[in-house]
Amino acid sequence: MKKLNFIFLGFLIIMAISCSKKANVAFIDKDRKAIVAADGQAFKKVLVQGAGKDVTYEGFSNDANNAIIYFGRVNPGFLVSEGFGLNKNYVLKLVPGKKYTVYIYTDPKDAAAYPIHFKTDYNNNIVTETDEDK
What we know:
19% helix; 3-stranded antiparallel β-sheet; 10 strands; alpha+beta
């Protein structure tokens, strides 16, 4: 029984450590209207859901330019898919008054992702959860 408790406690500690590392993966920059990697490392895979769309960005370069994804303009260094096709020149335009969820995958093969929630107001400004807490 002690062995089982020890294994369970070890599992909980590992889960707590792995969750705490993902806490600062990325953030939404409202001024630049972009998703920014907190550590400056290039994004591998990012999924943006909202306004009836599922848009996936897959980085094909580890360039520092791939540590940011802009809304409303082309993001070189990413293959983007909305549905089945891949597009290097895709532009994701945010829709006013909609909610979005961004999923950051640190490993493209991993099923677990770090979610970031935000919405747009009716002037198409980005509103984050921290803005609503104020």
